[in-house]
């Protein structure tokens, strides 16, 4: 169970916000329809399913039940409201309607949701009253496992993990309460007892009433405030003999009616007047930082959220942290998802090398990879099916073949509930009719499309930097419940194409110099959908036009300014973005560059290099290695041990004549990396020169001393 820690001196007037929200004043609140995305609990909110107060939950966390209800009976939500009105009718204003607020929470963080309900009864002359409930399905029945009455000066709040904390305002210059949590079975678990005194004098009086003499009058104590904790659930609040509590304090000054913490660390020194006073009274006193550490020790030491936080801040020792992954694996984004459906989210890192995502969990305090995309034949999505998260590995790159494999993962990283959705409609002369299967059984083409739409697209938890679907001229598609129609026409005389997208009578149209295009619905790293038209003209001229679906009625197509061509044909499904341009830095061979779709739908390449691919233009998509060249002379150059090396990893040495080097990558501006047969990387720094009689530059100088003519086999395009 992961608990939420609340520590620190509060202000002179405390009014902490409840998770349910205490209403202020007597103004009539607006009644809202309560709803949650769970039919079990929605039936209770709709008054169609009753719940009962299970006796096994009776106790401290079920306050005031006996005032209104027979614990052996079941009650609908309306009956609960009526029962409160009958028993406590003098407290609320009968002329005003109660306000119901609801949400799903996850007590115990086990993935099984509970319902949190807050019923606010508008007050009559006093602050409003709330009834707060947690409802859990147990063996097919709804049980009320937490029931509490909140008043302004005596309130509790229940957060999304079932953690219960004090919420209210100080009464008689004191705020007190118990912190704890409801576990996965919704059983109460004690964390600590907390008490806050607005002044040291109030604390002195409290101690005096229990036979403990402490002098905290005036002088240095004048603006001191005290917090008291006890980690003993059986602590006797009224006994002066039981001193199982510990104390912390801060000293304030009052400026313009506000309390300002002096922030003087010396007040916690052993020889300070404050610490001496506590010690003489036999009271354990600590600084706020020490109190926080004491409370943190009670939390789960393997809380993955803390480890992930340290990982992302580069604070973990002895292992790779986030900045290392950004640098070495070209990670461009992270997010959190509950992969194993246990209620605790795992970390997802996104990189084109991960196709595009990989998940990491915490094992023995270390952040370790548990699964991820496995290459061009196994891209990875995370999708939601029947309210459970599934991993979806898919292959959609070959024309006429789509393979989607789904499975769930448990907390031990074991796979189960595996099934597949396969469409194989390639016009292979060796096969007969196209086949479509789901869970091994044959289905119709329409059933295949419907299942793909529902499970892959509508169920996608996060649409990363991927093509969602390809759209041909004349196609229609539905997005967020709205239907779109796309048309493209070509003007051969002017070598122009016109692209038109319709929705609800609204037309967005643009005409551009181009002789071909490809259109897609894409999902960007900001989580939003965009429409792309990727165009090509003569030679390498290209454009990527972007249309924001959210602003369809406000703006049209926008030129992304991306100076690259889309040369790998992408089929509908999940193909990643591959853009290409010629390289003028080392001959004119083609290179490919993996891009992702950034915020606002604009193609981005972050810190990516451009990778040589001898067959990029004919569709190999990087499966073929770059061209191989041979040194004619000995060359001094930087050599690194592996492909992950950066500038600092290269050591100068002589690479002998006759060495064969495969063109690997370049920044398309200053250097090219070539790979030796043993996997080492050779880096050539290139300088552009302009020969007499030419109006353009060529990269011909290597490391300021060698010529490109000293290398055999450099390919030239054209």
Which short descriptors sum up this protein?
718 residues, mainly beta, disordered N terminus, eight-stranded mixed sheet, single chain
How many β-strands, per DSSP?
A: 47
How big a fraction of the residues is strand?
A: 35-45%
Tell me the span between the first and last alpha carbons: 65 Å
Poorly predicted ranges = 1-19, 21-32, 568-577, 614-623
Q: Helicity level, as a percent range?
A: 10-25%
Number of helices: 8
Give the gist of this structure:
The chain is mostly beta strands.
Structure description:
This protein has 718 residues and is mostly beta strands. It is built from eight helices and 47 strands. The strands form nine sheets. Strands 34, 35, 38, 39, 40, 41, 42, 43, 44, 45, 46 and 47 form a twelve-stranded antiparallel β-sheet that branches. β4 (114-121) and β5 (129-138) form a beta hairpin. It is globular.
Explain the layout of strands and helices.
Blueprint: H1 39-45, E1 51-52, E2 74-75, H2 77-87, E3 99-105, E4 114-121, E5 129-138, E6 141-150, E7 156-158, E8 163-166, E9 174-182, E10 188-197, H3 200-209, E11 224-230, E12 245-255, E13 258-261, H4 273-280, E14 284-285, H5 288-296, H6 304-312, H7 322-328, E15 333-337, E16 346-350, E17 357-363, E18 366-372, E19 379-385, E20 388-395, E21 401-409, E22 415-424, E23 435-438, E24 441-442, H8 445-457, E25 466-471, E26 476-479, E27 482-491, E28 496-503, E29 506-513, E30 516-523, E31 529-536, E32 542-548, E33 558-559, E34 578-582, E35 590-594, E36 596-597, E37 603-604, E38 610-612, E39 628-631, E40 635-640, E41 651-655, E42 660-666, E43 671-675, E44 681-689, E45 698-702, E46 706-707, E47 711-712
Parallel strand pairs: 12-14
Antiparallel strand pairs: 1-2, 3-4, 4-5, 5-6, 7-8, 8-9, 9-10, 10-11, 11-12, 12-13, 15-16, 16-17, 17-18, 19-20, 20-21, 21-22, 22-23, 23-24, 25-30, 26-27, 27-28, 28-29, 30-31, 31-32, 32-33, 34-35, 35-38, 36-37, 38-42, 39-42, 39-47, 40-41, 40-44, 42-43, 43-44, 44-45, 45-46
């Amino acid at each position: 169970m992961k608990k939420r820690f609340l520590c620190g001196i509060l202000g002179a007037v405390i009014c902490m916000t409840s998770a349910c929200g205490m209403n202020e004043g007597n103004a009539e609140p607006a009644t809202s329809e309560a709803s949650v995305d769970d039919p079990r609990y929605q039936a209770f909110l709709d008054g169609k399913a009753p719940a009962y107060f299970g006796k096994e939950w009776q106790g401290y966390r079920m306050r005031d039940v006996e005032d209104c209800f027979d614990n052996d009976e079941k009650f609908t939500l309306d009956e609960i409201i009526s029962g409160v009105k009958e028993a406590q009718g003098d407290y609320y204003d009968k002329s005003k309607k109660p306000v119901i607020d609801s949400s799903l929470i996850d007590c115990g963080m086990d993935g099984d949701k509970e319902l949190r309900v807050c019923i606010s009864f508008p007050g009559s002359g006093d602050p409003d009253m709330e009834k707060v409930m947690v409802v859990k399905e147990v063996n097919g029945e709804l049980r009320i496992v937490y029931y509490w009455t909140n008043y302004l000066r005596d309130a509790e709040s229940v957060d999304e993990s079932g953690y219960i904390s004090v919420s209210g305002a100080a009464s008689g210059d004191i705020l007190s309460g118990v912190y704890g949590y409801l576990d996965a079975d919704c059983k109460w678990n004690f964390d600590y007892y907390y008490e806050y005194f607005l002044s040291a004098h109030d604390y002195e009086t409290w101690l005096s009433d229990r036979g403990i003499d402490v002098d905290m009058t005036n002088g240095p104590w004048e603006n001191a405030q005290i917090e008291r904790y006890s980690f003993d659930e059986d602590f006797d609040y009224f006994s002066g003999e039981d001193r199982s509590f510990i104390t912390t304090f801060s000293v304030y000054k009052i400026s313009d009616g506000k309390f300002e913490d002096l922030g003087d660390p010396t007040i916690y020194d052993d020889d300070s007047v404050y610490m001496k006073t506590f010690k003489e009274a036999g009271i354990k006193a600590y600084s706020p930082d020490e109190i926080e550490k004491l409370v943190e020790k009670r939390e789960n030491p393997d809380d993955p959220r803390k480890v992930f936080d340290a990982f992302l801040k580069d604070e973990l020792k002895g292992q790779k942290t986030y900045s290392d992954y950004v640098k070495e694996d070209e990670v461009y984004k992270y997010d959190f998802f509950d992969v194993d459906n246990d209620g605790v989210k795992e970390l997802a890192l996104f990189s084109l090398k991960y196709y595009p995502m990989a998940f990491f969990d915490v094992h023995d305090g270390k952040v370790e990879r548990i699964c991820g995309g496995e290459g061009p034949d196994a891209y990875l999505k995370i999708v939601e099916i029947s309210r459970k998260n599934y991993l979806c590995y898919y292959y959609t790159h070959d024309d006429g073949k789509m393979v989607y494999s789904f499975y769930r993962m448990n907390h031990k990283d074991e796979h189960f509930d595996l099934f597949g959705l396969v469409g194989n409609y390639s016009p292979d002369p060796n096969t007969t009719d196209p086949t479509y299967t789901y869970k091994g059984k044959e289905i119709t083409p329409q059933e295949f499309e419907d299942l793909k739409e529902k499970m892959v697209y509508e169920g996608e938890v996060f649409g990363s930097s991927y093509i969602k679907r390809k759209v041909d001229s004349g196609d229609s598609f539905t997005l967020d419940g709205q239907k779109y129609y796309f048309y493209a026409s070509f003007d051969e005389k002017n070598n122009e194409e016109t692209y038109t997208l319709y929705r609800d009578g609204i037309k967005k149209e643009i005409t551009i110099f181009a002789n071909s295009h490809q259109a897609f619905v894409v999902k960007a790293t900001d989580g939003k959908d965009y429409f792309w038209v990727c165009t090509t003209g003569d030679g390498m001229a290209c454009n990527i036009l972007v249309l924001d679906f959210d602003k369809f009625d406000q703006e049209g197509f926008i030129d992304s300014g991306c100076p690259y061509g889309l040369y790998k044909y992408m089929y509908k499904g999940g193909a990643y973005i591959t853009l290409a341009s010629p390289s003028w830095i080392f001959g004119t061979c083609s290179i490919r560059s993996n891009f992702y779709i950034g915020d606002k739908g604009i193609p981005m390449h972050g810190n990516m290099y451009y990778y040589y691919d001898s067959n990029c233009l004919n569709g190999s998509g990087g499966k073929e290695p770059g061209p191989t060249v041979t040194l004619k002379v000995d060359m001094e150059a930087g050599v690194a041990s592996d492909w992950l090396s950066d500038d600092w990893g290269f050591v100068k040495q002589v690479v002998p004549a006759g060495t064969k080097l495969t063109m690997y990558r370049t920044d398309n501006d200053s250097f090219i990396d070539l790979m030796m047969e043993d996997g080492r990387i050779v880096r050539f720094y290139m300088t552009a020169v302009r020969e007499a009689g030419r109006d353009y530059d060529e990269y011909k100088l290597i490391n300021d001393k060698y010529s490109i003519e000293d290398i055999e086999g450099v390919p030239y395009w054209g």
